[in-house]
Write a structure and sequence with these properties.
Largest sheet: none
Order of helices and strands: HHHHHHHHHHHHH
Shape: globular
Structural class: mainly alpha
Helix content: over 70%
Number of helices: 13
Number of domains: 1
Radius of gyration: 19 Å
Length: 293
């Protein structure tokens, strides 16, 4: 099947929806150590990729220099580990909004890094986006409402979006790397996760329900990362960055429906500003105004 730009963009939308579900799964696995959850889910994800590569007899397509493995594993596994860890130290709606604020950086810096020409909208939209994040973090109180008890969670969420945004930009620029390498990155990450887990002696026997969630999470990671990789290489890059801002909206909506988050007005105001920032950054609003004139 030929991967057109439209089809690749649809695959990116699927990845965004799946990531929202993954956040809910991680919340229900809070009883287990972080590296136990990561190691198990990553290994399942790797086995899925390994099975597909074996069936297709494409192992020769994953032979790359060590630097490629290091950059890919640190981008995917590092960002995911930081995001899951952040959920243990801060409210999910705040972590979700902060972690997925990476499109602000990607769209703002993408013009410069990808030589597409930066403009004033990029910097203005970045400012508006971070104001939106600040409103969510502080329940609309800004500096007076900062929760110092959640600092560790905030820092992990920031680390997550820095690692992920860097990986997104690299993936978009280096499109010749085979998508099967995602499974190899995650497989490498699972080895390190198991090492951390066994060195800490923190293993907890999961219940049947938790095992099912771990398996589901591993499957979601395998599908979502593949979809996103194809989308970044062949889809509408700017549009996908804009659509990524709907991730916190979907996550917060699911959390609220399930009673796992309070439906505060500040969350929705902040999320609206984040989406507004993405639209401005992509130039959609600017083109809409010109069309009316």
């Amino acid at each position: 099947m030929v991967v057109t730009r439209t089809r690749a963009t649809y695959l990116g939308c699927i990845a965004i929806i799946l990531w929202s579900i993954d956040t809910l799964i991680n919340l229900h696995l809070n009883r287990l150590p972080v590296f136990q959850v990561l190691a198990s889910a990553w290994m399942i994800c790797f086995l899925i990729y390994a099975m597909v590569v074996s069936v297709r007899k494409n192992w020769h397509t994953v032979k790359y220099k060590p630097i490629v493995w290091v950059m890919g594993a640190s981008g995917i596994c590092g960002a995911h580990a930081a995001s899951v860890g952040a959920l243990r130290f801060a409210p999910p709606e705040q972590v979700s909004t902060l972690s997925v604020s990476w499109p602000i950086f990607v769209v703002a810096m993408g013009g410069w890094l990808l030589r597409q020409g930066p403009c004033w909208r990029s910097f203005l939209s970045s400012l508006i986006g971070f104001i939106g994040v600040a409103i969510v973090l502080t329940d609309g109180k800004l500096f007076s409402g900062y929760h110092f008890d959640y600092t560790q969670g905030y820092l992990l969420a920031i680390l997550s979006f820095i690692l992920w945004s860097s990986y997104v930009l690299i993936t978009h620029k280096v499109s010749q790397i085979n998508s099967a390498m995602i499974g190899m990155y995650i497989g490498l990450g699972s080895i390190f996760a198991f090492c951390f887990l066994f060195s800490s002696n923190a293993f907890i026997q999961p219940t049947l329900f938790e095992w099912l969630l771990i398996i589901l999470g591993g499957c979601i990671l395998a599908v979502s990362y593949f979809c996103w990789d194809v989308a970044m290489k062949h889809g509408h890059f700017t549009l996908l960055s804009v659509l990524s801002y709907f991730n916190p909206i979907l996550t917060i909506s699911l959390l609220t429906l399930l009673g796992l988050s309070h439906n505060g007005l500040s969350i929705w105001i902040g999320a609206f500003l984040v989406i507004l920032a993405a639209l401005m950054c992509s130039g959609i609003l600017n083109r809409a105004v010109k069309a009316k004139v």
